[in-house]
Automatic annotation (TrEMBL):
Keywords: Isomerase
Originating organism: Vreelandella olivaria
Name of protein: Uncharacterized protein
Superkingdom as given in the UniProt entry: Bacteria
Family: Belongs to the PrpF family.
Amino acid sequence: MAIVERSSHPGADVDYLFAQVDVVNKRVDFNPNCGNMLSAVGPYAIETGLVEPEDGTTVVKVHNLNTQRLIECHVPTPGKQVQYEGSVTISGVPGSAAGIQLSF
């Protein structure tokens, strides 16, 4: 689960908290991090108006509350619109999509 809100951290646009839900043991773990979920934070922040898109690429500055680190999500936004279609693939995941670059 990704919990995202506008950040009050200097240098960050949004705060991101990852929660691993264990339905078998009925618990939530806030210790791990998930890069796949993190890659969705940038497009989410743009689509919900938390970050104003740029033409070309929009850099969303994310404060990860799990690790207390700042991460830049480079989101393709041609025409100031999030681009979802693309040729980037991940092993074990069907299909392809636009690439989101993460800078830790």
